[in-house]
Amino acid sequence: MPLPAPFERMYTDFEDIRERVATYAGKVSYKLRKQNSCCKLAYIFLHTNVHRDDLAQYHNGITVQMPYETNSSLVITKAVMTGLKRIYKEGYHYKKAGIIVMGLTPDSQKQLTFFYNEDPRHKALMQTIDKLNRTCFDQVKLGAQDLKKVWKMQQKHLSRRYSTRLNEVIEVKV
C-alpha cells in the first residue's frame, strides 16, 4: 500500500519534510484501519527533483520495523520519523517522499508477542479520531502535522471529464 506524493514545492528544511511525511503516515494508517489491516514494516523514501540538472541529486530509502503489527497512527508515525531522520541529508532540495507499508496482516489475525504489545487504548483512540475526522473533515491531527495545511493531490494535467461535467463537453465547430 504505497503513499508516495510529490511535494507542492521543493523543500530544504527538515521540519517541512517531517510534517509532510507525518501527514502521509497518518493517511496510510487511516487506510489500514479502514481495510481492517495492520502492518509490520514501512519503507520510507526521499527524492530530489531528477529533472533539475542544476541541483545536487540525492535519493534514499529505508525500511523500518514496527515493534508489533499495528495500524495506530501514533506507532506508525513514530517509526517513520526515526527512518526519515536516518535518510535525510541537509543541503538538498527535496521534491518527493513516500511511505510503503509492508507485512500486511488482517487486524483479527495479529501475532502476539511476549515483550511488546500494542497499548489497548490506541484502538479506541484511533476509532474516535477517525469518527471525528469523518464528521469534521480531517480536523484532528497528530502533533507532528500542520493543522493549517490540507493535503491535496496536484491535478495540473487532469483529463477532461466529458461524461460528468457539462462545461467540459467537446464542442465541434463546423
Structure overview:
This protein is an alpha+beta fold. It has helices spanning 14-34, 73-87, 120-136; strands spanning 2-11, 37-48, 59-70, 94-102, 105-106. Helix 1 packs antiparallel against helix 2 (73-87).
In short:
The protein is built from three helices and five strands, in the order βαββαββα. It has 174 residues and is α+β, with helices and mostly antiparallel strands.
Keywords:
alpha+beta, 174 residues, 5-stranded antiparallel β-sheet
Low-confidence stretches: none
Q: Which of globular, elongated, flat, extended, rod-shaped describes the shape?
A: globular
Distance, first to last CA = 48 Å
Could you give the order of the helices and strands? EHEEHEEH
> How many helices does DSSP assign?
3
Q: Work out the radius of gyration.
A: 19 Å
* Largest sheet data: 5 strands, antiparallel
Specify the structural class. alpha+beta
Mean pLDDT: 80
Q: Provide the β-strand percentage band.
A: 25-35%
Helix percentage:
25-40%
Number of strands: 5
Element layout with pairings:
Blueprint (H helix, E strand, L loop, with lengths): L1 E10 L2 H21 L2 E12 L10 E12 L2 H15 L6 E9 L2 E2 L13 H17 L38
Antiparallel strand pairs: 1-4, 2-3, 2-4, 2-5
Helix pairs in contact: 1-2
